[in-house]
Amino acid sequence: MSDAPKAPLLPVPEALARLIALMPLMGTEEVPLTRAAGRVLASDAVARRTQPPFAASAMDGYALRDAGLAPGAEYRVIGEAQAGRGFAGAVGPGEAVRIFTGAPVPEGADRVLIQEDAETPAPGRIRVREGFDDARHIRPAGGDFSEGDRLTAPRRLTSRDVALLAAMNLPRVEVRRRPVIALIATGDELVEPGETPGPDQIVSSNTYGLHAMLAALGADPRMLPIARDTMHSLAAAFDAAEAAGADLVVTLGGASVGDHDLVGRAAGAAGMALDFWRIAMRPGKPLMAGLMRGRPMVGLPGNPVSAIVCGHVFLRPALDAMLGLPAGPLERETARLAAPVVANGGREHYARAVLGRGADGALSVRVLERQDSSLLSVLAEADALAVLPAGAPEMPAGAAVEILRL
Ligand SMILES: Nc1nc2c(c(=O)[nH]1)N[C@H]1C(S)=C(S)[C@@H](COP(=O)(O)OP(=O)(O)OC[C@H]3O[C@@H](n4cnc5c(N)ncnc54)[C@H](O)[C@@H]3O)O[C@H]1N2
Ligand code: MOO
Q1: Is the pLDDT of residue 231 over 80?
Q2: Does the Cβ of 257 fall within 6 Å of ligand 1?
Q3: Residues 120 and 66 sit within 8 Å (Cβ to Cβ)
Q4: Alpha-helical regions (H) of 316-385
Q5: C-alpha 310 to ligand 1 mean position (Å)
Q6: Residue 218: CB within 6 Å of ligand 1?
Q7: Is residue 327, in this structure, part of any structural domain at all?
Q8: Which protein residue's CA is at the shortest distance from atom 35 of ligand 1?
Q9: Is residue 311 part of a domain?
Q10: Distance in angstroms (rounded) separating the CA atoms of residues 312 and 398
């Protein structure tokens, strides 16, 4: 790959569109509700129930007829309705049924007088207090949803969605299969966390950041053994990814132009048809992608911040595509610079930054001073990336910039 170091760099939107086009759509499977959160609903969920299935009391009190209700009015209590066991009869004028929250409102009643507004002049009787509260406290049948109502696919299921699906009486739902994503760290300098690095070695980190990111988004990331900087070791890693059933192969490192940056060459030898290499972004320039024996392969740069920024900018939308979600650039917001930034170079800069609020309450962003792509402590401090356009001039405090939340 070192034969094209000066080739023009691909703009991020074009690279992203090409990457998304490489992604296969995952098949579907059924999962119980306890495993549904974070998964992507693959077909509309259709309510098998109406909720509430009957007009239900919203309060503890007395079900009665609204007509004639007035301070001092008295009612004879003819029975009781509790949640799970209603009152079988009907409520006539001058009659009330003791009722509790969630109980079916008996026939004839169209109001619940809360118990705080009732006094008991004699056993079996109630009297309406002065200044009683004027709400009816009845939840109509179907007030939440009706049988046949839909929770539409595709959507990444939240805990709130799971509660709704349960209320719809759907114990299982059809979701997209979680894409298996093989993560391959590459480099002779790397050891796993917890191991003892040699004098010239460091601990592999970016694989763990990506593993966490992808798992949280509904993928099934698999950490493969670290590949060494040899064609043989990289070939073995690609074989291992295939054996793991990877839907997407992601390498980290070895993507640039150095003598030991062999990923592009090794991937080519393993049958990868390169789609693109080298992006007009900072960090992330050496990113590559292609199809390897029918499955997409992404080569991320090794610098830890580069890999994780590329994970956000490229892998998150790629994963959305595999899961059948609308896939495109991450949502951007506008914020005001809290302090000036220097002129940008020729690559779109995804600068690590911290969000805040200006004096006027508007979203503000402070670009962190140290932007070297090796600095994980700075990345951990950041909660956003400020996107500084290629060739942007120096910008004063208060200037509007686009940001991506991390
Ligand atoms: N002459 C040039 N040199 C470089 C260029 C260039 O255009 N011309 N690009 C630079 C840019 S930009 C980047 S980004 C890096 C990325 O290169 P590689 O993808 O080949 O990454 P490596 O060289 O393998 O590693 C870079 C750096 O990151 C460390 N690393 C790698 N993997 C991990 C890991 N799993 N966990 C933690 N740290 C990791 C590695 O030790 C290196 O320090 O190339 C520039 N060079
Ligand atoms: O593009 Mo590299 O990712 O700047 O550090």
Answers
A1: yes
A2: yes
A3: no
A4: 316-322, 376-381
A5: 13
A6: no
A7: no
A8: 204
A9: yes
A10: 26
Do 312 and 229 reside in the same domain of the chain? yes
Burial of 241 (0-12, 13-18, 19+ CB in 10 A): buried
Residues 211 and 127 in one domain: no
Residue 185 beta carbon below 6 angstroms from any ligand 1 atom? yes
Tell me if 286 CB under 6 Å of ligand 1: yes
Q: Are residues 198 and 315 in the same domain?
A: yes
Say which CATH number the domain at 399 has: 2.40.340.10
Ligand 2 atom with minimal separation from the 347 CA: 1
* Ligand 2 site, residue 256, Cβ cutoff 6 A: no
What is the CA(274)–ligand 1 centre distance, in A? 20
ipTM: 0.98
4, part of any domain: no
Q: In terms of domains, do 40 and 61 share one? A: no
pLDDT tens for each residue of 300-347: 999 999 999 999 999 999 999 999 999 999 999 999 999 999 999 999
The pLDDT of residue 7: 77
Q: Is the pTM of this model over 0.95?
A: no
CA distances (Å), 99 to each of 121, 141, 149, 399, in order?
18, 17, 29, 61
Ligand 1 pocket, residue 209 CB under 6 Å? no
220: containing domain: 12-27+177-322
Q: Which residues contact 195 (CB under 8 A, 6 or more apart)?
A: 203
Any idea what the CATH number is for the domain that residue 217 is in? 3.40.980.10
Task: Give the pLDDT confidence of 354-405 residue by residue, as tens digits.
Answer: 999 999 999 999 999 999 999 999 999 999 999 999 999 999 999 999 999 9
Q: Which of 322, 346, 380 is the last residue of a domain?
A: 322
pLDDT of residue 4: 52
- Ligand 1, atom 42, residue with closest C-alpha: 303
- The domain total for the chain is 4
Please give the distance, rounded to the nearest whole angstrom, from the Cα atom of residue 312 to the centre of ligand 2: 14
Cα(176)–Cα(381) distance, integer angstroms: 34
Q: Answer yes or no: is the C-beta of 104 below 6 A from any ligand 1 atom.
A: no
